[in-house]
Amino acid sequence: MAKQRMLQFVNVGKEMPEKRPPNLRAKDFDEIYAEYATPKAEEQAGRCSQCGVPYCQTHCPLHNNIPDWLRLTAEGRLQEAYELSQATNTFPEICGRICPQDRLCEGNCVIEQSGHGTVTIGAVEKYITDTAWENGWVKPIQPRTERAESVGIIGAGPGGLAAADMLRRQGFQVTVYDRYDRAGGLLTYGIPGFKLEKDIVMARIQQLELGGVQFVLNCNVGEDMSFHAIRGQHDAVLIATGVYKTRDLQGPGAGADGIVRAIDFLTASNKKSFGDDVPEFDNGELDARGKRVVVIGGGDTAMDCVRTSIRQGATSVKCLYRRDRENMPGSLREVQNAEEEGVEFVWLTAPKGFTGDSVEGVMVQKMRLGAPDATGRRAPELIEGADYIEKADLVIKALGFEPEDLPALWGVPELEVTRWGTIKADFKTHETNLPGVYAAGDIVRGASLVVWAIRDGREAAEAIMEYVNAAASVAAE
Ligand code: FAD
Ligand code: SF4
Ligand code: SF4
User: Fold this and answer.
1) Residue 273, CB half-sphere, CA atoms under 13 Å: how many?
2) Per the domain annotation, does 214 fall within a domain?
3) What is the percentage of the chain residues whose pLDDT exceeds 90?
4) Does the beta carbon of 17 sit less than 6 angstroms from any atom of ligand 3?
5) Secondary structure of 5-39 as H, E, C letters
6) Considering Cα of 370, then 372, then 374, then 376, what sign does the dihedral take?
């Protein structure tokens, strides 16, 4: 009789891939989780109870067919598992590494709800695609036919790249423009290597290049090339430029030297990992070595800054956040990783100002949580008379990002934006108010997640294909 491979959650406990010890991993920028060995991946996939209504799938923004690829993995049919997984996700090995699974697929797994510990969906997804790469199953795109029509994509982050992949598969000529010197957007220059090693991202970009996607790098649209020129050169355009304007700190001394933006700090660190010359790092400005570092904020970016500071050799790293652990926006898994590596979280605190011309300290105000606000979250309230100074040599602002003013920067006042400055686009087709111009990812949603950018990019690509096909059939009449 065939061995029962699924529904093993009662007999087999949840096991994540091994995590490197904190004292070792805090010394480098390599990923902290090892890969499952094959028997372990099969065993963990076999814990799935094959739900008729899989809530994991409903809560995955890409609606990945999770139960089926878990079953194929448990049965050792990995190539089929890979084919199924990549059919709905352009970059499964990336999502498997960096999706906040506790809030998405895994957080909604019925086994988790019943107290047995979730199926480790993300780790299995990563295992499947890493195995596919090792075995040469991930092949460059080879469109069946070439199309004459071209699409210009502004922004080489996950949103733009997911769209490029879909469009190129259909034979469209695709050019991706980006202001950075490497493609990948925040996958390359925002997210640190200990969450996502850079060769994973570069391998994907190389595959896209081999498949015929053209990249025009070091091209800041609005400066090096106008939006109008790009629009004139292509049959359709996708804007996937992300959000990069840093929310600022207020209060006396907020402009002091030594107070830096998270994106600059993380970009410099990632560039150093590529072996680049980075003057602002080499002169010490963006290097945490030997410094008392204070990071302000409680989201993913703040988590990445504290853990990067530890790896750069800071003498102490503190994270100030105005709410408490239960009410922070960042992933709790990341908080735990940071604490293990030596980061100290100072909950219920907010900066009031800064001392020193070159920063020497943060004037900290203590907070408590009051009644829930309009969003249902308990609003922080000031505790009078409890201020103190936290000594600091480097302060990193990680309070979130806002969109740049694209209509003004690009000289396109007719491009409609919301009152938050994000581009207004149709919820499903992602078309803006300008015909043939689409928008996807963070520039539409505001700061969000990689998996949502991928979904948007894929949906926008579908809509662009329909648009170009319709235009082509009108022209043929
Ligand atoms: P981006 O990735 O921002 O890419 C936009 C690209 O457009 C960039 O390459 C930029 O150079 C380019 N561009 C912008 N303006 C122009 C212009 N004028 N001309 C030419 N090119 C331009 N999400 C997760 O799911 N998990 C995580 O763990 C996670 N960690 C994060 C950590 C940090 C530090 C940050 C900042 C974000 C993190 N996110 C995470 C969020 C995630 O990275 C973003 O939601 C996602 O990258 C958005 O994709 P995008 O394609 O819309 O934009
Ligand atoms: Fe889970 Fe993200 Fe993978 Fe979806 S893409 S299954 S949410 S890890
Ligand atoms: Fe399997 Fe959990 Fe998804 Fe159910 S919810 S199909 S048990 S992974």
Assistant:
1) 25
2) yes
3) 87
4) no
5) CCCHHHCCCCCCCCECCHHHHCCCCCCCECCCCHH
6) positive
Residues 313 and 391 occupy one common structural domain: yes
Per-residue pLDDT reduced to its tens digit, 311-344? 999 999 999 999 999 888 888 889 999 999 999 9
Tens of pLDDT, residues 164-210: 999 999 999 999 999 999 999 999 999 999 999 999 999 999 999 99
If asked whether residues 269 and 320 sit together in one domain, one would say yes
Q: In whole numbers, what is the pLDDT of the chain averaged over residues? A: 95
Query: What CATH number is given to the structural domain containing 274?
Result: 3.50.50.60
Phi and psi at residue 109, to the nearest 5°: -70, 135
Domain end residue (candidates: 345, 371, 401)? 401
**Pocket-forming residues, ligand 1, beta carbon under 6 Å:** 98-99, 154-160, 177-180, 185-186, 190-191, 195, 219-222, 240-242, 266, 300-301, 304, 441-442, 448-451, 453
Query: Could you tell me the two tokens for 205?
Result: 């970009």
pTM for this one? 0.96
Domain that holds residue 238: 150-243+403-476
Q: By alpha-carbon position, which residue is closest to atom 39 of ligand 1?
A: 449
CA of 59 to the centre of ligand 2 (A): 8
**Both 329 and 421 in a single domain?**
no
Is residue 182 within 8 A of residue 189, CB to CB? The reply is yes
**Which tokens hold the place of 419?**
């009152």
